[in-house]
Design goal:
The protein has 579 residues and is an alpha/beta fold. The protein folds into four domains: 1-32, no CATH class; 36-117 and 152-272, P-loop containing nucleotide triphosphate hydrolases (Rossmann fold, 3-Layer(aba) Sandwich); 306-527, Nucleotidyltransferase, domain 5; 539-569, no CATH class. It has 18 helices and 19 strands. It has helices spanning 2-9, 15-32, 35-38, 43-50, 66-79, 101-113, 217-226, 243-255, 278-290, 293-299, 331-338, 390-402, 414-417, 428-438, 456-467, 485-493, 518-527, 543-560, and strands at 55-60, 93-98, 119-122, 129-131, 150-151, 166-169, 174-179, 185-190, 205-209, 231-236, 263-268, 348-354, 359-367, 376-385, 409-412, 449-451, 477-479, 496-501, 504-511. A hairpin with a 4-residue loop joins strand 12 and strand 13 (359-367). The protein starts with a helix and ends in a 19-residue tail after the last helix.
Length: 579
Amino acid sequence: MQAVTSVANAGQVTEWEKKQHRRLLAEKMRRECETLRLYEPLPFQDAFHRCTCQQALIQKGNRVGGTIALMVEVARAFTGTDPYNKYPKTGVQIVMLGYGEKHIGRVFYNKLFRPGIFRIIKDLQTDRWRVYRPWPAEHGGDLQRVDESLKAPPLIPERFIQGKIAWEKRSERVFSIVRSTTDSEIHATNSAGDPGQAQGFSVNLYAIDEDLATSGWYEEAIGRVADCGGFIRWSALPHAKNDDLMQMVEFAEKEAEKPNPAAVIIRASIFDNKYLPKASVDQSVEAWKSKGEDVYRKRALGEININSTLMYPTFNRRVHDVMNVSETSTKAQRLLAERMGEPPDDWTRYVSIDPGFTVLAIEFIAVPPPELGNQVFLYDECYIRDAPVPTEACADALQMKMADKVIEALIFDMHGGRLRSIATGEVPYQKYGEAITARGLKPASGGIFRHGCDDVARREEDMRTMLAIQRNSQPRFMVCVGKCPSFCSEMEKFKKKTVKQWGKEIAIDKGDRRVNTHAIEAVEQALGIDLPYIKPRKTSLVGGFVNHFKEWGDRMRRRDQGQEGGSQHISLGPIGVGS
Protein backbone atom coordinates (compact mmCIF):
# COMPACT_ATOMS: atom_id res chain seq x y z
CA MET A 1 0.00 0.00 0.00
CA GLN A 2 2.78 2.41 0.95
CA ALA A 3 4.72 1.37 -2.15
CA VAL A 4 1.73 2.07 -4.38
CA THR A 5 1.21 5.46 -2.74
CA SER A 6 4.83 6.47 -3.17
CA VAL A 7 4.77 5.41 -6.81
CA ALA A 8 1.57 7.34 -7.32
CA ASN A 9 3.15 10.45 -5.80
CA ALA A 10 6.08 10.08 -8.17
CA GLY A 11 3.70 10.30 -11.07
CA GLN A 12 4.55 6.81 -12.30
CA VAL A 13 1.01 5.28 -11.89
CA THR A 14 -1.56 5.55 -14.61
CA GLU A 15 -5.18 6.52 -14.03
CA TRP A 16 -6.27 2.97 -14.85
CA GLU A 17 -3.92 1.59 -12.16
CA LYS A 18 -5.27 4.08 -9.63
CA LYS A 19 -8.81 3.03 -10.49
CA GLN A 20 -7.90 -0.63 -10.07
CA HIS A 21 -6.26 0.13 -6.76
CA ARG A 22 -9.40 1.88 -5.48
CA ARG A 23 -11.55 -1.01 -6.69
CA LEU A 24 -9.40 -3.61 -4.92
CA LEU A 25 -9.34 -1.54 -1.75
CA ALA A 26 -13.13 -1.25 -1.81
CA GLU A 27 -13.46 -5.01 -2.38
CA LYS A 28 -11.11 -5.68 0.54
CA MET A 29 -13.25 -3.48 2.80
CA ARG A 30 -16.43 -5.22 1.62
CA ARG A 31 -14.99 -8.65 2.38
CA GLU A 32 -13.85 -7.55 5.83
CA CYS A 33 -17.45 -6.74 6.77
CA GLU A 34 -19.07 -9.81 5.19
CA THR A 35 -21.62 -11.28 7.53
CA LEU A 36 -20.02 -14.74 7.79
CA ARG A 37 -16.81 -13.09 9.01
CA LEU A 38 -18.60 -10.94 11.62
CA TYR A 39 -20.97 -13.62 12.94
CA GLU A 40 -20.55 -14.22 16.70
CA PRO A 41 -22.41 -17.43 17.65
CA LEU A 42 -24.16 -17.85 20.98
CA PRO A 43 -22.99 -20.90 22.98
CA PHE A 44 -25.77 -23.17 21.69
CA GLN A 45 -25.18 -21.97 18.12
CA ASP A 46 -21.46 -22.66 18.44
CA ALA A 47 -22.21 -26.19 19.70
CA PHE A 48 -24.46 -26.69 16.66
CA HIS A 49 -21.72 -25.59 14.23
CA ARG A 50 -19.00 -27.63 15.93
CA CYS A 51 -21.06 -30.82 16.03
CA THR A 52 -19.73 -33.55 13.75
CA CYS A 53 -22.57 -36.03 14.37
CA GLN A 54 -24.56 -37.04 11.33
CA GLN A 55 -27.71 -35.46 12.79
CA ALA A 56 -28.10 -32.37 14.98
CA LEU A 57 -31.34 -30.75 16.12
CA ILE A 58 -31.79 -27.34 17.73
CA GLN A 59 -34.99 -27.77 19.75
CA LYS A 60 -35.82 -24.18 20.56
CA GLY A 61 -38.35 -21.60 21.61
CA ASN A 62 -39.39 -18.47 19.70
CA ARG A 63 -36.82 -15.77 18.88
CA VAL A 64 -33.93 -17.87 20.12
CA GLY A 65 -31.65 -17.72 17.06
CA GLY A 66 -31.97 -21.28 15.81
CA THR A 67 -32.88 -20.27 12.26
CA ILE A 68 -29.88 -17.92 12.13
CA ALA A 69 -27.59 -20.80 13.11
CA LEU A 70 -29.11 -23.01 10.40
CA MET A 71 -28.77 -20.29 7.72
CA VAL A 72 -25.12 -19.71 8.70
CA GLU A 73 -24.49 -23.46 8.40
CA VAL A 74 -25.98 -23.43 4.88
CA ALA A 75 -24.02 -20.34 3.84
CA ARG A 76 -20.74 -21.79 5.08
CA ALA A 77 -21.31 -25.05 3.23
CA PHE A 78 -22.33 -23.22 0.03
CA THR A 79 -19.33 -20.87 0.05
CA GLY A 80 -16.78 -23.50 1.16
CA THR A 81 -15.96 -21.57 4.35
CA ASP A 82 -17.02 -23.97 7.11
CA PRO A 83 -14.32 -23.56 9.81
CA TYR A 84 -14.76 -27.16 10.98
CA ASN A 85 -14.29 -28.70 7.51
CA LYS A 86 -17.45 -30.79 7.62
CA TYR A 87 -18.20 -30.21 3.93
CA PRO A 88 -16.20 -30.36 0.69
CA LYS A 89 -14.80 -27.07 -0.57
CA THR A 90 -16.52 -27.49 -3.94
CA GLY A 91 -19.50 -29.34 -5.38
CA VAL A 92 -21.58 -29.30 -2.18
CA GLN A 93 -25.20 -30.44 -2.60
CA ILE A 94 -27.60 -28.77 -0.16
CA VAL A 95 -31.32 -29.37 0.32
CA MET A 96 -33.28 -26.78 2.31
CA LEU A 97 -36.66 -27.94 3.53
CA GLY A 98 -39.22 -25.28 4.49
CA TYR A 99 -42.77 -25.29 5.81
CA GLY A 100 -44.58 -24.16 2.69
CA GLU A 101 -43.61 -21.95 -0.25
CA LYS A 102 -43.88 -18.75 1.76
CA HIS A 103 -41.27 -20.09 4.17
CA ILE A 104 -38.82 -20.39 1.27
CA GLY A 105 -39.45 -16.81 0.14
CA ARG A 106 -39.81 -15.06 3.48
CA VAL A 107 -37.20 -16.96 5.49
CA PHE A 108 -34.68 -18.76 3.27
CA TYR A 109 -34.29 -16.09 0.60
CA ASN A 110 -34.42 -13.11 2.95
CA LYS A 111 -31.88 -14.48 5.41
CA LEU A 112 -29.44 -15.86 2.83
CA PHE A 113 -29.53 -13.28 0.04
CA ARG A 114 -30.80 -10.02 1.56
CA PRO A 115 -29.24 -7.71 4.20
CA GLY A 116 -30.34 -7.69 7.81
CA ILE A 117 -29.97 -11.13 9.38
CA PHE A 118 -28.54 -9.08 12.28
CA ARG A 119 -27.18 -5.55 12.78
CA ILE A 120 -23.54 -4.44 12.76
CA ILE A 121 -21.65 -1.42 14.05
CA LYS A 122 -18.11 -0.02 13.95
CA ASP A 123 -16.10 -0.74 17.09
CA LEU A 124 -14.82 2.45 18.73
CA GLN A 125 -11.54 0.82 19.72
CA THR A 126 -10.59 -1.12 16.58
CA ASP A 127 -12.53 0.91 14.00
CA ARG A 128 -13.68 -2.42 12.53
CA TRP A 129 -17.20 -3.67 11.94
CA ARG A 130 -18.67 -6.16 14.41
CA VAL A 131 -22.05 -7.40 15.66
CA TYR A 132 -24.22 -4.73 17.32
CA ARG A 133 -24.75 -5.39 21.04
CA PRO A 134 -28.15 -4.08 22.24
CA TRP A 135 -27.27 -3.43 25.87
CA PRO A 136 -25.85 -0.39 27.77
CA ALA A 137 -22.26 0.77 27.28
CA GLU A 138 -21.41 0.16 30.93
CA HIS A 139 -21.90 -3.54 30.22
CA GLY A 140 -19.91 -3.45 26.98
CA GLY A 141 -22.90 -2.76 24.72
CA ASP A 142 -23.86 -0.26 22.03
CA LEU A 143 -27.40 0.71 23.09
CA GLN A 144 -26.59 4.44 23.09
CA ARG A 145 -25.22 4.12 19.51
CA VAL A 146 -28.19 2.30 18.00
CA ASP A 147 -28.55 4.97 15.28
CA GLU A 148 -25.03 4.14 14.06
CA SER A 149 -25.84 0.47 13.51
CA LEU A 150 -26.57 -0.93 10.05
CA LYS A 151 -28.10 -4.06 8.61
CA ALA A 152 -25.51 -6.79 8.06
CA PRO A 153 -24.83 -7.63 4.38
CA PRO A 154 -26.35 -10.84 2.92
CA LEU A 155 -25.04 -14.08 4.38
CA ILE A 156 -24.13 -15.29 0.87
CA PRO A 157 -22.30 -12.51 -1.01
CA GLU A 158 -23.25 -11.98 -4.63
CA ARG A 159 -19.72 -12.87 -5.75
CA PHE A 160 -20.38 -16.53 -4.86
CA ILE A 161 -23.52 -16.87 -7.02
CA GLN A 162 -23.07 -18.38 -10.49
CA GLY A 163 -25.52 -17.29 -13.17
CA LYS A 164 -29.15 -16.63 -12.43
CA ILE A 165 -31.28 -17.99 -9.61
CA ALA A 166 -33.92 -20.52 -10.73
CA TRP A 167 -37.32 -19.35 -9.51
CA GLU A 168 -40.60 -21.07 -8.71
CA LYS A 169 -42.37 -17.75 -8.02
CA ARG A 170 -40.03 -14.83 -8.54
CA SER A 171 -42.54 -12.23 -7.34
CA GLU A 172 -42.66 -13.97 -3.95
CA ARG A 173 -38.92 -14.81 -3.95
CA VAL A 174 -39.66 -18.54 -3.94
CA PHE A 175 -36.53 -20.00 -5.51
CA SER A 176 -35.79 -23.60 -6.44
CA ILE A 177 -32.03 -23.75 -7.23
CA VAL A 178 -29.06 -21.48 -6.57
CA ARG A 179 -25.64 -22.40 -7.98
CA SER A 180 -22.26 -21.19 -6.74
CA THR A 181 -19.00 -20.36 -8.46
CA THR A 182 -17.54 -23.43 -6.72
CA ASP A 183 -20.06 -25.80 -8.36
CA SER A 184 -22.21 -26.09 -5.20
CA GLU A 185 -26.02 -26.01 -5.28
CA ILE A 186 -28.89 -25.13 -2.95
CA HIS A 187 -32.20 -26.88 -3.67
CA ALA A 188 -35.13 -25.26 -1.84
CA THR A 189 -38.04 -27.65 -1.24
CA ASN A 190 -41.55 -27.32 0.18
CA SER A 191 -42.23 -29.95 2.87
CA ALA A 192 -45.92 -29.95 1.92
CA GLY A 193 -44.96 -31.95 -1.14
CA ASP A 194 -44.06 -35.58 -1.67
CA PRO A 195 -40.80 -36.63 0.07
CA GLY A 196 -40.03 -38.76 -2.99
CA GLN A 197 -39.28 -35.64 -5.05
CA ALA A 198 -35.88 -35.39 -3.30
CA GLN A 199 -34.81 -38.89 -4.36
CA GLY A 200 -32.05 -39.82 -6.76
CA PHE A 201 -29.02 -37.84 -5.55
CA SER A 202 -26.67 -37.63 -2.59
CA VAL A 203 -26.82 -34.65 -0.25
CA ASN A 204 -23.97 -33.15 1.78
CA LEU A 205 -26.26 -30.98 3.91
CA TYR A 206 -29.96 -31.54 4.53
CA ALA A 207 -31.14 -28.37 6.29
CA ILE A 208 -34.64 -28.38 7.80
CA ASP A 209 -36.16 -25.24 9.32
CA GLU A 210 -39.12 -25.54 11.69
CA ASP A 211 -41.70 -28.33 11.64
CA LEU A 212 -42.68 -30.35 8.56
CA ALA A 213 -46.00 -30.09 6.75
CA THR A 214 -46.08 -33.79 5.88
CA SER A 215 -44.33 -36.83 7.30
CA GLY A 216 -41.73 -39.00 5.60
CA TRP A 217 -39.08 -36.32 4.99
CA TYR A 218 -36.85 -37.30 7.91
CA GLU A 219 -36.64 -40.90 6.68
CA GLU A 220 -35.86 -39.62 3.18
CA ALA A 221 -33.16 -37.26 4.51
CA ILE A 222 -31.37 -40.14 6.24
CA GLY A 223 -31.18 -41.99 2.94
CA ARG A 224 -29.91 -38.93 1.01
CA VAL A 225 -26.97 -38.15 3.35
CA ALA A 226 -25.90 -41.76 3.95
CA ASP A 227 -24.07 -42.26 0.64
CA CYS A 228 -21.68 -39.33 0.92
CA GLY A 229 -21.25 -38.96 4.67
CA GLY A 230 -23.51 -35.90 4.71
CA PHE A 231 -25.26 -34.16 7.58
CA ILE A 232 -28.83 -33.49 8.68
CA ARG A 233 -29.22 -30.16 10.46
CA TRP A 234 -32.64 -29.22 11.86
CA SER A 235 -33.83 -26.17 13.79
CA ALA A 236 -37.40 -26.29 15.05
CA LEU A 237 -39.94 -24.81 17.39
CA PRO A 238 -41.63 -28.15 18.16
CA HIS A 239 -45.23 -27.91 16.99
CA ALA A 240 -45.17 -31.72 16.55
CA LYS A 241 -47.56 -31.64 13.60
CA ASN A 242 -46.39 -35.14 12.62
CA ASP A 243 -44.08 -37.89 13.82
CA ASP A 244 -40.90 -36.87 11.96
CA LEU A 245 -39.60 -34.51 14.64
CA MET A 246 -40.41 -36.99 17.41
CA GLN A 247 -38.59 -39.72 15.51
CA MET A 248 -35.40 -37.67 15.46
CA VAL A 249 -35.81 -36.70 19.13
CA GLU A 250 -36.26 -40.32 20.18
CA PHE A 251 -33.33 -41.46 18.03
CA ALA A 252 -31.07 -38.76 19.50
CA GLU A 253 -32.06 -39.67 23.06
CA LYS A 254 -31.18 -43.31 22.44
CA GLU A 255 -27.88 -42.29 20.84
CA ALA A 256 -27.04 -40.11 23.86
CA GLU A 257 -26.06 -43.25 25.75
CA LYS A 258 -23.31 -44.02 23.23
CA PRO A 259 -19.76 -42.58 23.37
CA ASN A 260 -20.00 -41.46 19.72
CA PRO A 261 -23.67 -40.70 19.04
CA ALA A 262 -25.01 -40.37 15.51
CA ALA A 263 -27.50 -37.69 16.59
CA VAL A 264 -27.66 -34.95 19.23
CA ILE A 265 -30.27 -32.51 20.50
CA ILE A 266 -29.19 -28.97 21.38
CA ARG A 267 -31.92 -27.30 23.43
CA ALA A 268 -32.28 -23.53 23.67
CA SER A 269 -34.87 -21.24 25.24
CA ILE A 270 -35.67 -17.58 24.80
CA PHE A 271 -33.50 -16.92 27.85
CA ASP A 272 -30.42 -18.13 25.96
CA ASN A 273 -30.46 -15.25 23.45
CA LYS A 274 -28.57 -12.33 25.00
CA TYR A 275 -29.32 -10.14 21.97
CA LEU A 276 -33.01 -9.90 22.88
CA PRO A 277 -33.83 -6.88 25.11
CA LYS A 278 -34.98 -7.97 28.56
CA ALA A 279 -38.16 -5.90 28.33
CA SER A 280 -39.07 -7.65 25.08
CA VAL A 281 -38.41 -11.08 26.61
CA ASP A 282 -40.53 -10.24 29.66
CA GLN A 283 -43.42 -9.03 27.50
CA SER A 284 -43.33 -12.18 25.35
CA VAL A 285 -43.20 -14.47 28.38
CA GLU A 286 -46.12 -12.67 30.02
CA ALA A 287 -48.19 -12.95 26.83
CA TRP A 288 -47.45 -16.66 26.43
CA LYS A 289 -48.21 -17.43 30.07
CA SER A 290 -51.55 -15.67 29.75
CA LYS A 291 -52.48 -18.25 27.11
CA GLY A 292 -51.65 -21.19 29.33
CA GLU A 293 -48.72 -23.24 30.58
CA ASP A 294 -48.58 -25.32 27.37
CA VAL A 295 -48.14 -22.24 25.19
CA TYR A 296 -45.45 -20.79 27.47
CA ARG A 297 -43.43 -23.99 27.64
CA LYS A 298 -43.54 -24.46 23.87
CA ARG A 299 -42.91 -20.83 22.86
CA ALA A 300 -40.40 -19.83 25.54
CA LEU A 301 -38.67 -23.10 26.44
CA GLY A 302 -38.99 -24.96 23.15
CA GLU A 303 -40.65 -28.03 24.63
CA ILE A 304 -42.52 -30.44 22.39
CA ASN A 305 -46.19 -29.56 22.47
CA ILE A 306 -47.62 -32.70 24.03
CA ASN A 307 -47.86 -31.21 27.52
CA SER A 308 -51.64 -31.25 27.67
CA THR A 309 -51.40 -35.06 27.80
CA LEU A 310 -48.14 -35.32 29.76
CA MET A 311 -48.39 -36.80 33.22
CA TYR A 312 -45.74 -34.47 34.64
CA PRO A 313 -45.80 -31.38 32.40
CA THR A 314 -43.94 -29.24 34.94
CA PHE A 315 -40.77 -31.32 34.63
CA ASN A 316 -38.16 -29.43 32.65
CA ARG A 317 -34.54 -30.40 32.02
CA ARG A 318 -33.43 -26.80 32.50
CA VAL A 319 -35.47 -25.98 35.60
CA HIS A 320 -34.83 -29.26 37.42
CA ASP A 321 -31.17 -29.72 36.46
CA VAL A 322 -28.77 -29.61 39.41
CA MET A 323 -26.01 -28.29 37.16
CA ASN A 324 -28.08 -25.26 36.07
CA VAL A 325 -26.90 -23.04 38.92
CA SER A 326 -28.36 -19.53 39.17
CA GLU A 327 -28.66 -16.69 41.66
CA THR A 328 -31.68 -18.36 43.29
CA SER A 329 -30.04 -21.79 43.65
CA THR A 330 -30.00 -23.31 47.14
CA LYS A 331 -26.82 -24.10 49.05
CA ALA A 332 -27.48 -27.81 48.59
CA GLN A 333 -27.79 -27.46 44.80
CA ARG A 334 -24.62 -25.36 44.57
CA LEU A 335 -22.67 -27.86 46.65
CA LEU A 336 -23.86 -30.83 44.59
CA ALA A 337 -23.11 -28.98 41.33
CA GLU A 338 -19.60 -28.09 42.54
CA ARG A 339 -19.01 -31.79 43.22
CA MET A 340 -20.27 -32.69 39.71
CA GLY A 341 -23.27 -34.57 41.08
CA GLU A 342 -21.45 -36.60 43.76
CA PRO A 343 -23.14 -36.07 47.18
CA PRO A 344 -20.91 -35.31 50.20
CA ASP A 345 -20.36 -38.11 52.71
CA ASP A 346 -22.59 -36.45 55.33
CA TRP A 347 -25.69 -36.63 53.07
CA THR A 348 -28.16 -39.51 53.39
CA ARG A 349 -28.20 -41.83 50.39
CA TYR A 350 -31.07 -44.04 49.29
CA VAL A 351 -31.25 -46.54 46.42
CA SER A 352 -34.59 -47.37 44.80
CA ILE A 353 -34.97 -50.46 42.61
CA ASP A 354 -37.68 -51.22 40.07
CA PRO A 355 -37.14 -54.87 39.03
CA GLY A 356 -38.11 -55.99 35.58
CA PHE A 357 -37.66 -58.88 33.18
CA THR A 358 -36.48 -56.71 30.29
CA VAL A 359 -35.50 -53.43 32.01
CA LEU A 360 -34.05 -52.99 35.47
CA ALA A 361 -33.99 -49.44 36.86
CA ILE A 362 -31.83 -48.47 39.84
CA GLU A 363 -32.13 -44.84 40.96
CA PHE A 364 -29.76 -43.17 43.44
CA ILE A 365 -31.24 -40.48 45.68
CA ALA A 366 -29.59 -38.13 48.20
CA VAL A 367 -31.04 -36.04 51.03
CA PRO A 368 -28.87 -33.18 52.38
CA PRO A 369 -28.70 -32.12 56.05
CA PRO A 370 -31.66 -29.96 57.19
CA GLU A 371 -29.48 -26.84 57.46
CA LEU A 372 -29.09 -26.98 53.65
CA GLY A 373 -32.83 -27.09 52.99
CA ASN A 374 -35.54 -29.65 52.33
CA GLN A 375 -34.64 -30.73 48.80
CA VAL A 376 -34.24 -34.27 47.46
CA PHE A 377 -31.78 -35.01 44.65
CA LEU A 378 -31.68 -37.78 42.05
CA TYR A 379 -27.95 -37.90 41.34
CA ASP A 380 -27.30 -41.15 39.44
CA GLU A 381 -28.95 -44.19 37.87
CA CYS A 382 -28.35 -47.61 36.35
CA TYR A 383 -30.69 -48.54 33.52
CA ILE A 384 -30.03 -52.15 32.53
CA ARG A 385 -31.73 -53.68 29.49
CA ASP A 386 -32.07 -57.38 28.68
CA ALA A 387 -29.74 -58.63 31.43
CA PRO A 388 -29.29 -62.44 31.25
CA VAL A 389 -29.78 -62.64 35.02
CA PRO A 390 -31.37 -59.42 36.33
CA THR A 391 -30.76 -60.29 39.99
CA GLU A 392 -27.02 -60.69 39.40
CA ALA A 393 -26.90 -57.56 37.22
CA CYS A 394 -28.58 -55.57 39.99
CA ALA A 395 -26.18 -56.80 42.66
CA ASP A 396 -23.16 -56.16 40.41
CA ALA A 397 -24.35 -52.62 39.68
CA LEU A 398 -24.85 -51.88 43.37
CA GLN A 399 -21.45 -53.30 44.24
CA MET A 400 -19.78 -51.19 41.56
CA LYS A 401 -21.62 -47.95 42.32
CA MET A 402 -21.98 -48.06 46.09
CA ALA A 403 -19.40 -50.39 47.61
CA ASP A 404 -17.55 -47.56 49.37
CA LYS A 405 -20.66 -45.51 50.24
CA VAL A 406 -23.02 -45.53 53.21
CA ILE A 407 -26.55 -46.39 52.04
CA GLU A 408 -29.37 -45.80 54.47
CA ALA A 409 -31.93 -48.03 52.73
CA LEU A 410 -32.57 -50.11 49.63
CA ILE A 411 -36.12 -49.37 48.47
CA PHE A 412 -37.79 -52.12 46.44
CA ASP A 413 -40.99 -52.45 44.42
CA MET A 414 -42.66 -55.17 46.49
CA HIS A 415 -45.79 -55.15 44.33
CA GLY A 416 -43.86 -56.62 41.41
CA GLY A 417 -41.26 -58.24 43.62
CA ARG A 418 -43.82 -60.62 45.16
CA LEU A 419 -45.15 -61.90 41.83
CA ARG A 420 -44.04 -65.52 41.71
CA SER A 421 -42.42 -66.66 38.47
CA ILE A 422 -44.56 -69.17 36.57
CA ALA A 423 -41.48 -70.90 35.16
CA THR A 424 -39.45 -71.32 38.37
CA GLY A 425 -41.88 -70.60 41.18
CA GLU A 426 -39.39 -68.12 42.66
CA VAL A 427 -40.30 -64.82 44.25
CA PRO A 428 -38.19 -62.01 42.66
CA TYR A 429 -37.48 -59.94 45.76
CA GLN A 430 -36.03 -63.00 47.54
CA LYS A 431 -33.67 -63.69 44.64
CA TYR A 432 -32.61 -60.05 44.50
CA GLY A 433 -31.98 -60.12 48.24
CA GLU A 434 -29.89 -63.28 48.00
CA ALA A 435 -27.75 -61.84 45.19
CA ILE A 436 -27.17 -58.63 47.11
CA THR A 437 -26.30 -60.29 50.44
CA ALA A 438 -24.02 -62.76 48.66
CA ARG A 439 -21.80 -59.78 47.81
CA GLY A 440 -21.76 -58.57 51.39
CA LEU A 441 -24.01 -55.60 50.66
CA LYS A 442 -26.22 -54.37 53.46
CA PRO A 443 -27.88 -50.98 54.08
CA ALA A 444 -27.18 -49.05 57.26
CA SER A 445 -30.81 -49.27 58.42
CA GLY A 446 -30.59 -53.08 58.66
CA GLY A 447 -32.42 -55.79 56.80
CA ILE A 448 -32.25 -55.82 53.03
CA PHE A 449 -35.21 -54.01 51.47
CA ARG A 450 -37.56 -51.28 52.55
CA HIS A 451 -40.97 -51.41 50.87
CA GLY A 452 -41.60 -48.71 48.29
CA CYS A 453 -44.92 -46.87 48.16
CA ASP A 454 -47.42 -48.90 46.14
CA ASP A 455 -50.26 -46.35 46.28
CA VAL A 456 -50.02 -45.09 42.68
CA ALA A 457 -52.37 -42.11 43.14
CA ARG A 458 -50.40 -40.93 46.17
CA ARG A 459 -47.10 -41.42 44.35
CA GLU A 460 -48.27 -39.30 41.42
CA GLU A 461 -49.47 -36.53 43.71
CA ASP A 462 -46.21 -36.55 45.67
CA MET A 463 -44.19 -36.35 42.46
CA ARG A 464 -46.19 -33.34 41.27
CA THR A 465 -45.66 -31.63 44.61
CA MET A 466 -41.92 -32.27 44.56
CA LEU A 467 -41.61 -30.93 40.99
CA ALA A 468 -43.49 -27.72 41.75
CA ILE A 469 -41.56 -24.47 42.21
CA GLN A 470 -41.45 -23.31 45.85
CA ARG A 471 -41.37 -19.78 47.22
CA ASN A 472 -37.57 -19.74 46.94
CA SER A 473 -37.96 -20.18 43.15
CA GLN A 474 -36.58 -23.72 43.28
CA PRO A 475 -38.28 -27.14 43.15
CA ARG A 476 -37.94 -29.60 46.04
CA PHE A 477 -36.88 -32.38 43.67
CA MET A 478 -33.91 -31.88 41.34
CA VAL A 479 -32.00 -34.17 38.97
CA CYS A 480 -28.43 -34.46 37.74
CA VAL A 481 -29.73 -34.52 34.17
CA GLY A 482 -26.43 -35.55 32.60
CA LYS A 483 -26.15 -38.61 34.86
CA CYS A 484 -29.82 -39.65 34.66
CA PRO A 485 -30.74 -39.64 30.95
CA SER A 486 -33.21 -42.52 31.14
CA PHE A 487 -35.25 -40.93 33.92
CA CYS A 488 -35.40 -37.61 32.04
CA SER A 489 -36.37 -39.32 28.79
CA GLU A 490 -39.19 -41.24 30.49
CA MET A 491 -40.46 -38.08 32.20
CA GLU A 492 -40.69 -36.21 28.91
CA LYS A 493 -42.68 -39.03 27.28
CA PHE A 494 -44.85 -40.18 30.19
CA LYS A 495 -48.42 -39.42 29.13
CA LYS A 496 -51.79 -39.64 30.78
CA LYS A 497 -54.18 -42.45 30.02
CA THR A 498 -56.78 -41.69 27.41
CA VAL A 499 -60.34 -42.99 27.23
CA LYS A 500 -62.85 -42.68 24.42
CA GLN A 501 -65.79 -40.41 25.17
CA TRP A 502 -68.30 -39.20 22.57
CA GLY A 503 -66.00 -40.49 19.84
CA LYS A 504 -62.94 -38.56 21.07
CA GLU A 505 -59.82 -39.56 22.99
CA ILE A 506 -59.94 -37.77 26.35
CA ALA A 507 -56.94 -37.67 28.71
CA ILE A 508 -57.67 -38.65 32.32
CA ASP A 509 -55.53 -37.86 35.35
CA LYS A 510 -53.78 -41.22 35.54
CA GLY A 511 -50.46 -42.23 34.04
CA ASP A 512 -50.31 -44.61 31.09
CA ARG A 513 -47.89 -47.16 32.52
CA ARG A 514 -48.00 -49.52 29.57
CA VAL A 515 -44.92 -47.76 28.18
CA ASN A 516 -41.44 -47.61 29.72
CA THR A 517 -41.78 -45.99 33.15
CA HIS A 518 -39.20 -48.07 35.03
CA ALA A 519 -37.01 -45.19 36.21
CA ILE A 520 -40.07 -43.07 37.01
CA GLU A 521 -41.62 -45.81 39.15
CA ALA A 522 -38.37 -46.34 41.03
CA VAL A 523 -38.27 -42.64 41.91
CA GLU A 524 -42.01 -42.42 42.61
CA GLN A 525 -41.97 -45.32 45.07
CA ALA A 526 -39.12 -43.65 46.97
CA LEU A 527 -40.64 -40.16 47.07
CA GLY A 528 -43.95 -41.70 48.18
CA ILE A 529 -42.45 -42.83 51.49
CA ASP A 530 -40.62 -40.85 54.11
CA LEU A 531 -37.01 -40.16 53.10
CA PRO A 532 -35.65 -38.45 56.21
CA TYR A 533 -32.17 -37.12 56.69
CA ILE A 534 -30.20 -39.55 58.86
CA LYS A 535 -26.58 -38.79 59.59
CA PRO A 536 -24.64 -41.58 57.85
CA ARG A 537 -22.75 -44.16 59.89
CA LYS A 538 -19.02 -44.32 59.25
CA THR A 539 -19.21 -47.74 57.61
CA SER A 540 -19.96 -48.24 53.94
CA LEU A 541 -22.45 -50.61 52.35
CA VAL A 542 -19.79 -53.31 52.33
CA GLY A 543 -17.78 -52.09 55.30
CA GLY A 544 -20.17 -53.38 57.98
CA PHE A 545 -20.05 -56.87 56.58
CA VAL A 546 -16.27 -56.79 56.20
CA ASN A 547 -15.75 -55.55 59.77
CA HIS A 548 -18.16 -58.13 61.12
CA PHE A 549 -16.31 -60.89 59.23
CA LYS A 550 -12.95 -59.69 60.58
CA GLU A 551 -14.30 -59.59 64.14
CA TRP A 552 -15.67 -63.11 63.73
CA GLY A 553 -12.26 -64.27 62.47
CA ASP A 554 -10.50 -62.64 65.44
CA ARG A 555 -12.88 -64.36 67.87
CA MET A 556 -12.25 -67.73 66.25
CA ARG A 557 -8.49 -67.26 66.52
CA ARG A 558 -8.70 -66.22 70.18
CA ARG A 559 -10.92 -69.21 70.96
CA ASP A 560 -8.44 -71.57 69.32
CA GLN A 561 -5.69 -69.98 71.38
CA GLY A 562 -7.76 -70.36 74.58
CA GLN A 563 -8.21 -66.60 75.00
CA GLU A 564 -11.99 -66.51 74.79
CA GLY A 565 -13.98 -66.98 77.97
CA GLY A 566 -16.40 -69.29 76.18
CA SER A 567 -13.62 -71.83 75.50
CA GLN A 568 -12.83 -72.41 79.20
CA HIS A 569 -15.65 -74.92 79.88
CA ILE A 570 -16.11 -78.50 78.67
CA SER A 571 -19.25 -79.62 76.89
CA LEU A 572 -20.11 -83.29 77.19
CA GLY A 573 -22.92 -83.12 74.71
CA PRO A 574 -22.78 -83.38 70.97
CA ILE A 575 -21.54 -80.46 68.97
CA GLY A 576 -24.17 -77.75 69.02
CA VAL A 577 -25.68 -78.86 72.39
CA GLY A 578 -23.26 -76.98 74.61
CA SER A 579 -23.74 -73.34 75.57
